Amino acid sequence: MKLPSLREVATEARLLLIGIPVFLWTMIPIYHMFLFAISPKEDAFSGKLWPDHPTLHNFEIVFKQQHYFLRDFYVQFWNSMLIAAAVGALTLFIATAAAFSISRLKVPGGRMVLNLALFTYFIPAAFLAVPMYRTMGNYGLLNNHWSLILAMVTIASPYAIWVLKQASDKLPVELDEAAVMDGATTLQIFRLVYLPLMMPSLVAIGTYAVLLAWNEYLYAFLLLSNDRQITLPVALGNFLAADDSPWELLMTTGFIYALPPAAVYYAFRRYMVGGLTAGAVKS
Amino acid sequence: MAITLSGDQSIPAPPLSSRLTPAQVWGIVLLAPYLLVFLAFVVYPVCYGLWLARAPSNYVALYNDPIFARAAVNTLIFLVIGINIKMLIALFLSGFFAQQRTWIKWLSVIFILPWAVPSIPTILSVRFMLNPEWGVINHIIFSFTGDDGPNWLNDPTVALTMAIGVHIWKSLPFWTLILITGRLAIAHDLFEAAEVDGASWWQKFRYITWPSMQTLYVTCTLLSMIWTLGDFNSVYLLTGGGPADLTHVLATLGIRYLRLDQLSLAMASIVCAMPFVLPLVYFMMKRLSR
Description:
The complex is a heterodimer.
Chain A: H1 6-37, H2 57-63, H3 73-103, H4 110-122, H5 125-138, H6 145-169, H7 173-181, H8 186-197, H9 199-215, H10 218-223, H11 232-238, H12 247-267, H13 269-280
Helix pairs in contact in A: 1-12, 2-12, 3-6, 3-9, 4-6, 6-9, 9-13
Chain B: H1 16-19, H2 22-52, H3 56-64, H4 66-97, H5 102-111, H6 113-116, H7 119-129, H8 136-145, H9 156-184, H10 188-196, H11 201-229, H12 233-236, H13 250-259, H14 263-288
Helix pairs in contact in B: 3-14, 4-9, 4-11, 9-11, 11-14, 13-14
């Protein structure tokens, strides 16, 4: 084995000098949360790197809903799941239909609709939240899950349409022509030719919409207020209402809430990196 | 693909449906769901909001509200200083992560975590770390010096800096990832040729990396600025706009007015931001819809 030269050691050391701070910067807030979750109440504030008596007691309290702030934990978890699933399904339906219509059927005015969608994509969501709140009130949808579902679909669709339109432009037009020759109807082309070929992009966009809805705080907190209607992030925010809020339980619930999106992200990372970051900014 | 019948035009005033091919009819049907969503949840709210904000008295009231001026300045600091620092770090780290090492590959998997987990629990985690009495940071300061640490979030400058820090923590991985893609797209033999010629790393960056990445970098910076205008969580969940409403940005200020039941003021504050937002949006659309 050849010993590394001095120059190689110096390069490696310089890289480590960047790598270690990056690692600490990334992990500290997450590790801090994890530490709270596995510490008994009195140990949590000690500033130790590892608790003297690590415990799963906090998780037990959360899962048994044994605290005032947690009495609707399962209902809220279910609300989050239901809303994320509904947003994913609706966004996929609306965006796929629109992308097929604009890209493959060349519907008149399609270009303009695409530009309008892009425009919506660039308007900061927090700005749209103010008129959206009032509009949902006018529609009588406040405190109804549909308000949050429809709001999130509105926010997720523009990007979804744009990415799917880019992806479908890459499919060769000869496929459609051949299918028309064989006497396929438009719907058959959509179902039998278009959808199977678009699968990777559809997975990416579905994941994108589900994560967007699961992670949303602002709209959820504006549109839903009843304890049995709200989603988990709103419930987490409500912990702060009290001065003596049980931090260790808040961090435990936050940890449980953060696990599914992280798992989904890493499971679909292959699709996310290819399908989304490439679409986010065209280089 | 569309087969049009040549006889169509000679028939006087045919109904619309017969002038469209079946494919076009399907096109309209399939586009309709999005158009409905767009009309009901974008066009109507925006028009209604603008109508609510029409009275000039709203703008006078905003002008006289010191919190609004402060929020506007905070937003500018957030965008001009915060985003540029973030993008510079991202540019630097993209070079680091482009290195071919196994441990750097693993680090890049961990590095993406802030982007992959929801922001609420992690921002609250930072908020607890900064708590003056119970937070881990002041605990460490106390155990080393015996003095009480500062009350971090009670100073508007420090609190806003922390909010910017939280924003950077959350979105740095995303932009680094995009800049890595840009960096990896540069032809490798350019660097090999520069190596042979004995170029320093700065020369390599200045004459190879930067020229091929500058458009991407500028686009990313502008896009990040637009999106950061809507970053409600970093400020609201860390400082809540406090102390004394001195750390609001436009995104949280609109919601603050909304919570105070001053909807027309909320809309007016957003209308005031439009002269800055719309040119950026226009520029981005030009770049993306080429």
